[in-house]
## 1
Amino acid sequence: MTDLSRRAMLKLGTAGFAGSALPALASVNETTGKTCDGLCNAAINIRAHQLLSLVCVLGGAKCPLMEASKAREVLQRLGSDPTITIRLMSNVDDVPHYTKLGPGVETSPNAQEVLNRKRDLDVFQRLGLAPGDTRRARYLYELLFKRIESLKGICAHDTPGWEGCPLAKGGAYERVRAKGWKAVVYLRSDQEREQYRRRNVERVEKDKRLFIRPHHLMCLSCWYAGGKSKSPRANDTLFEIWQRIRREPDVPITLVEGTCMACDCCDGFHPSNGRCVHSCGLVRDYKKDLDVFQKLGLMPGATMKARELFALLFQRIPSTRDICAYGDGIERSEEWKICSGPDGNPGYVATRNTGIFN
């Protein structure tokens, strides 16, 4: 585990394809048709401070705060599936009332557990989370590396009796952090994404109708910006969708709730289950979809001609503030970031004024 290049081996699980065949979506209950890998179904339960332990183990340290076998197992799973859900735990609320403590416990606490409880709460506080919270792996490690630069003040202190882990100042965490979240969590290869892009572009060009999530109609409008942008986008096929509806204004568009035909080549799209693992995909983009449905007075599965759908969109939603800034422009947490600013995206307004088809 000391050589970070070994992580590449874990990332080959879904990167290779035989011929042009691409894997179908999995993790679906055949009876109900529902996926079973959602955010409320935690795949991994660990203490909050063990998010750090996993990084240290990956960086070559023998972290005393997590069993080596469990660390290897979790790292294996993170290295192959970015949609893995992690529930962060702590025993901080297991501490009994002082009257329930025996005389020996009062004078001889388990110092290691006291330190671990503080570590848990330090991590929760930095991440803006609480015990029991569940998030996808990629989201957690993006946030962790953004907000916790080193282990100083978490795993080790200068106070006598609180020195903590002797390995905390060895640089293992910092070495992995410098490589970014993708040193811990699976990231799709460029080769795989390109294969999906080719298939996706063919579908956009030839399918009798387009399947698009509602808020992507707004993304397309923001990008087009009244005619200022007319080039392919690396992380989606909105440009190709725009070309199709320009050629065929009456092409039917079916609105879907969740990932759509614009998503397949995105680095945040996980093909095996169709999940979005971007931080914005955690919950925010799903709310956008439903907010657009509500504004349009439609339901998932609604199908309209492209020109009619965009006419309805621009009639009912004058600004991205109504959807992407939640109507009030208040950003309440990392999960609920505002896209394009609290006052709305001027590109959307420009497209609304000029139209998509001119």
## 2
Amino acid sequence: MKTRKLEDIIEMCHVRPGKKFRLKDHDPGWEGDQSIPEERRRQFAEALLSENVTELSEAQELLYAADTWSLLVVFQAMDAAGKDSTIKHVLTGINPQGCHVTSFKQPSVEELDHNFLWRCSKALPERGKIGIFNRSHYEETLVVRVHPEYLKSQQLPDLQASDAKVKKSFWKQRFDDINGFESHLHRNGTAIVKFFLNVSKEEQGKRFLERINERDKLWKFSLGDLQERARWDDYMEAYEETIEATSTEYAPWYVIPADNKWVTRAIVSRVIVKTIKSLNMQWPRVPDSDRLALEKAREQLLAELTNSRKGSRTPKPDAT
């Protein structure tokens, strides 16, 4: 990683709006310049992560103080790509009061009785805060795309669909809905950055085996994971079309190499820091009308502290 500028690495992952997108152009196992020993590359990535965590903590404080923007970070990936661990390591220095993580599971009956964006709308971060979506509204063009039979439970009017196929125009409408939703959020002060953690099928298989073989990881594995793995090609097709259709200037997608977690964490943390800094926020300024009152408050506090120190230096009377 060290021989390439960080900006070049970020650009390598960035999906340009309006451009043709193919997952085959993004190597899940990318880990920097192979001429440099892996240990040195790892050390550089870990140092970069540590630096980014510090910068992110400072950026979050400015985000909170300015109170004009919020940040929504979306994570999508196949099972075992490392979403949870990436969130854990990248956000380790964040003030918990300024950040909220929402993990979206199978929709509830109440959620199914609303439009597909409703449950995500409820979890959006308020101004000054960071919201993390572990899965998101994109499940509706990914999982539901691979399993169109799930649409039956959504009770959509005039949906002409069978379990096997849904008209392409239906998915285009969902892409349009998502783009409109994210454009609205951006115009109203929510910056958005979206990550697809691009794990290879081989690496996913290795991680599944680890979960089965290690007692403390077994709880993470479900037989349903293998059923979804069998639909790998269908998911890759859904991801390609979704990312191409919804990577915009106001809500960009980044396809992050995920076979090596040390690479994933370093790049994701850098992109988040860059995104917050791009908002060009300023620390709140004190109105001129308040300056005189603040100066009086400062003088009062200084006087109190001075008198307190003098009192502490007064000799105690002799008990005898």
## 3
Amino acid sequence: MIKQQEVDSIQPTEKHLLPTNDVIFHCLFGTIGNEEITKEFLEKILNKKIGNIDLDLNLQLIRDHYDDKLGILDLRAKAKDGTNYNIEMQNSSSSTLLERLLSYWARLYSGDLKRGNSYDVLAKTILILIVNDEIKKFNTILDKFHTKWQIREEDYKDIILSDDFEIHIIELPKYIRMRENNEYRNMWFDFIIEPNGKEVLQAMEESRVLAEAKKKWAEITADDIIRDRALRLEMAEYDRNTALKEAREEGLAQGIADGLKQGIEQGIEQGIEQIVLTMSSKNLSPEEISSLTQIDIEKVKSVIAKNSNIK
């Protein structure tokens, strides 16, 4: 177990190397040899025993081949009963996030189905998204940070179409609020948010697996190559978010400018028509109106003709 002097000597965590970083998360929970850590993490999320699991991602794969241009890493695990688990760690949500989750689930579910196979090769597939952000579509769900999604009949909501489909979404900002209000606490979520947090270090006194996860995390973050991958991912996410923010701001500014221009032009047009119609009602000819106002004669005639047709 971790000793108190070791707790006291731990320095604050470097922001970029938290387990919420996709690279760090996948090295920790997706590395062959860390099955016990990932198994307990899954059991705490799903609130059930899942038995032993196999992992198909190892540390060397990330050290040698990960490139931030490839996007999100896929953490996959398979239980002895055949159930597929897919865990995604995201630091921000997007407008297409939920559609992408469905795509991931479908791909994993049908992955074992080859030509000539029967459908009994398909196994239950559980996708878990942990997002360090709030999902706009869920902004009315205030009392839950962990939502579970299945396919149910509209009027008979207790009837599930298939047990094979299951998606869990965990919004960490909501968890933090519930934790601060003493509504709920999960040592594993505390760990991925801040491994050196006081509550985590206390929980490690009672949890051998959590203490092992902390040790593995320290080893991973000491690896220069992994650190480089993690920092590059952080920078890539920052660049993407900055580009999106600038695009939104430029779009808004352009929209305001276009709106003002359109409004001014529309106001001028309406003003011209009003002047022409007022002078025309005084029995002034189009030529006289044009001469007095410097409005093009054809424009004057057009305004008078249009309003004559309305009458």
## 4
Amino acid sequence: MTIRLTTTIASFSLLLAAATTISANAQAPATTAPAVNAGAIGADLNLSPKRVVFDSATRSATVYVFNQGGSSGTYSVNTVDEVMLPDGRIIKVEDAGGDPVAAALVAKMKSGKDLVMVTPRRITLAPHESQTIRIRVHPTADGAPGEYRTHLIISALPPEDTGLTADQASGKTDTNLSVRVVALYSLAIPLIIRQGPAESRGRIEHLTLAPEADHSAVEMDLMRDGANSMFGDVEIRVGGAKGQLLGGINGVGVYPEVDHRHLKVSLIRRAAPGEHLTVTWRDQDLKPGALIASSDISAP
């Protein structure tokens, strides 16, 4: 799965200047709108690889964090359990309690959070600087076969100069009001721990073709059977599996807690009436390039 990016918008500092003392007979100055400074932290961060899989032969891995931006940043490094929904959305387990469907999926997933050790837990990167994150895993106490998962989350932290200074808090500053709003970005990649042989099968069902404004879109369900997740590329071609590529999505994951994932793929143009389209799903996990499933649809 490709890197998933989330954003948190926060007002980091509200710089309140003490109002100048006004006599009872003086006219109060007109109220002015606060100045707003906006910024973003972590938007230029990149992680490699985009997905890490551990098995009986692989018990350690390195993730590289790159700051491609022009300013320094400090980031927290954590592991968080997240669950996949049938529509492809991924949410934190702690946010799934209010949704009965999501809660049922949480009950099916196997957390790998307690099986991994991650160092360091906090990094600071100068512009164009990189840092390695080391990950080690250990098997479960009972050694039971299965697939366990957690997510590595790299989150931007607010800069040290946010918040009120002592003078600002006591009112020993000018009369301006300034609100600094900063977007904090987080990047997440899955950490998958497999015990025992991996086993999964896939197929494509419920193909539909729908017209959009200036193109067509193909919707489908990627069905998964077995104990393990699946990860691969979906392509849509005209004229057979080796014909012209009309659309596709790389790095589509289907996690063990869901038996299918609904997917919508936009095409580069509108499908002509009677045109025959072939949808292929190819593995990029256990057997890269191998065909998982294919299905055909004709434009009405």
